[in-house]
Amino acid sequence: MGFLDQFWQLSVDGLMVGSLYAVIALGYTLVYGVLQLINFAHSEVFMLGSFGGLFAARALLPGDGSVPGGAGSIALVAVGLGAGAACGGLAAFTLERVAYRPLRRRAAPRLAYLISAIGASLFAVNLAGKEFGRQNVDLPDLFHNGTVFRLFGAAVSTQTLVIFAVAVAMLVGLDRLVAGTRLGQGIRAVAQDADTAVLMGVNVERIIIVTFVVGGLLAGAGGFLYAMTFNASYSMGFVPGVKAFTAAVLGGIGNVRGAMLGGLLLGLVESYGGYLFQASYKDVIAFGVLVAILMIRPSGLLGERLGRAA
Amino acid sequence: MLLTLTDVEVAYGAVTALRGVSLEVAEGEIVTLLGANGAGKTTTLRTISGLLRPRAGEVRLDGCSLSTIPAHDLVARGVSHVPEGRRVFPSMSVRENLLMGAYRDRRHARADLDRVLALFPRLGERIGQAGGTLSGGEQQMLAIGRALMSRPRLVLLDEPSMGLAPMIVRTIFEVIAEINRNGVAVLLVEQNATSALRIARRGYVLETGRVVLADTAAGLLADDRVRQAYLGEDVTTAPPDTTAPPDTTAPPDTTTHAPSS
Questions:
Q1: Closest approach of B251 to chain A, Cα-based (Å)
Q2: Which residues of B touch A (CB under 8 A)?
Q3: CA distance B148 to B214
Q4: Is B100's CB within 8 Å of A189's CB?
Q5: Which residue in A22, A163, A258, A282 has the most C-beta neighbors within 10 A?
Q6: What beta strand segments (E) does chain B contain?
Q7: Residues spanned by CATH 3.40.50.300 within chain B?
Q8: Is A200 close to B83, i.e. CB distance below 8 A?
């Protein structure tokens, strides 16, 4: 079958994966916005959230390997999302307190943060490998019926629909949070000018920790969604983490809407590219596009500032 | 006394910026702080607002030491700081910038927004525009308006006339006087000494981190050293050129920024 026949199916698949990249990318971009710090341990926040959500959902599954389906499955997804978000939030909180805050207090140079991030990342990966085993852990498909409806001939499963809907809801929610709430006002103020934000009465330390936690909640919930389609493993964080980081850079790091756009675009490009060439070329194509776009627009598609588009 | 600094010393690493500064601002008065670049004027303001911590000495507000008060709590205690270079939030609209001034207390935000827009009608015309796209004068109005949103008792103003055209400078000084008539005390750092001394009640002159003169505004205007160093008296009787870069009104002997002619 030709590309055009497959176009809509590839688009649906790409958008689903891309929406997950976007959700994870927000964590990178938010933290970069307020601290000008690339939190390379964010991928492990995603991984820990993924395990948290997955274990919570598995604990509630009946032991016979069946899934409740329908409303029962929706409830399971809700539990998994909640647990994933909670684990992600907790992991991000701990990370900030243990790996970054002590450095900030000592006004450490940039390189120290990077080393600290890598250390925290290795620690989390190996701890997870020890505790959760080095095998993939998965979840049975929570929804029996495959195709719910066809979109221009593309099959959209309940699972795909649920994942995409939840991811988009999180993206919209985060966008509203940043653009329209007092917390968002504080986040944007710190991102644009931290000293002046202090003069306005913004508690910068609180904004920083909340920003980490918000990014962690999203990554954790996103981790559960990811585990629903794929699986979870101790080493799962790296590749989606790098791709989400790519998405954030693609859209313009520090820019919330940019991260969303970057994530969706990256998902689509991967999906199309994987079909046009070979599935194994997916990552090559994804990162090739990144390099190409950055050569033309070094500060990403929407530019580099948090709040510019929000 | 509203604000009291007692023997305040501040250092940036090994470099001492303030070497024992003492000054006072009473309720409702305008006090100006004069001095050349690098004399420690901005450092003094940043120390008052808690962005810098004194190595020795003390800053008191209403008689209470500020040494344990975090900088972000100062605005809630009635101190607003309009920083050097205006520092509006570039990607926020004029409205959002003004609302940032009411970040700690939203209750009166709507009424205060109207009040500020009445003071600066120009800002009303630009209300949806991003702060970074405004002209220098408009940004200064925005920075001052933003500081007023918290209903301060004391406003710290750092070089409000810097880089602005004379007509705008006049407007800015009128507004400062207007703010003060409503009972707000102002600590004004300025290179434009004449204008500052005209609206101030008292003034201090800083030189390399020390207060070298303290007097009423009239007294300072009459002081030979001040006339020579800050009022450009030796440059004839013409009023100081406010459009020129600030360095021209500064004495040539100070700091590392001295132009290499």
A1: 30
A2: 49-51, 70-76, 80-81, 83, 87, 89-92, 96, 99-101, 103-104, 106, 146, 150
A3: 28
A4: yes
A5: A22
A6: 3-12, 15-25, 30-35, 56-61, 64-65, 79-82, 154-158, 185-189, 202-207, 210-216
A7: 1-78+153-261
A8: no
Instruction: Look up the CATH number of domain A3-296.
Output: 1.10.3470
Q: Which H or E run contains A244?
A: helix A238-251
Contact A198 B101 (CB under 8 A): no
Region B1-78+153-261: CATH code: 3.40.50.300
Query: What ipTM did this prediction achieve?
Result: 0.86
Q: Where are the alpha helices (DSSP H) in B157-208?
A: 166-181, 193-199
- Torsion of Cα atoms, A108 then A114 then A117 then A123, to 10°: -110
pLDDT value, residue A253: 86
pLDDT digits (tens, 9 = 90+) for A31-66: 999 998 999 999 999 999 999 999 999 999 887 777
Calculate Rg over the CA atoms of chain A: 19
Domain-wise residue ranges, chain A: 3-296
**Interatomic CA distance for residues B239 and B105, integer angstroms:** 42
The pTM assigned to this predicted structure is 0.88
